[in-house]
Amino acid sequence: MLEKFDGLEIIEDRDNHDYILSVTDLATLKGNKFYDKRNLVNLRAGGRLVASFYEPQPSQVSQRLEKYGLTFSMPEPLQEGNVFHMIVRTDDEPLTFQDYYYPRATYEWAFRTAGFQEIRWHSPMVSPEGLQKFGQEFWQDYVENQVSIYLECVKR
């Protein structure tokens, strides 16, 4: 999946993702354990941050995503701070990612508190190659029920 931001193509690289488990920690980055991440807060005015997040889907939607190799394991109803798991089917063994659920409004609060503005959400798009290979109808459930989303914001 890729998305274009002002002419740049963004491709997810899961090997270089960082996780901050508390929204308060995300907003303040206090303490030695976040020393390496403070550069996000220290962006110069006008600097841009792009981050990706998973949005877990309820069980009735998750079933429609199985054809893409994705399933979710989570408590229902899902509440802020709940742990959820996304399972990605592969040719070998399934990959399980653990994450924490926070609604978009909570992320927006954290980034605004950290000094960001112009917060915009972007949905991934199916690549032209994916559309050509499988067709629009195949991707419809994925497009309508986004699993990953991207946040773009600018430092004040």
Strand content: 25-35%
Number of beta-strand segments: 8
Globally, the shape reads globular
- Specify the biggest β-sheet: 3 strands, antiparallel
If strands are numbered along the chain, what order do they take across the biggest sheet?
3-8-7
Give the helix tally. Answer: 6
Instruction: Give the helix level as a range of percent.
Output: 25-40%
Mean pLDDT: 79
Assembly level? single chain
> What is the chain-wise order of helices and strands?
EEHHEHEEEHEHHE
Task: Give the C-alpha Rg.
Answer: 17 Å
Give the helix/strand class.
alpha+beta
> Uncertain regions: pLDDT < 50 for 5+ in a row?
1-6
Q: Terminal Cα separation, in Å?
A: 30 Å
Number of domains: 1
Description:
This protein has helices at residues 23-28, 38-41, 59-65, 104-113, 128-134, 136-144; strands at residues 2-5, 8-11, 48-54, 70-73, 83-88, 95-100, 116-122, 148-155. It is α+β, with helices and mostly antiparallel strands and 156 residues long. The protein has one domain (2-155). The chain has a three-stranded antiparallel β-sheet, with helices on one face. Strands 4-5-6 form a three-stranded antiparallel β-sheet. Strands 1-2 form a two-stranded antiparallel ribbon. The longest helix is centred in the C-terminal third of the chain and has 10 residues, at 104-113.
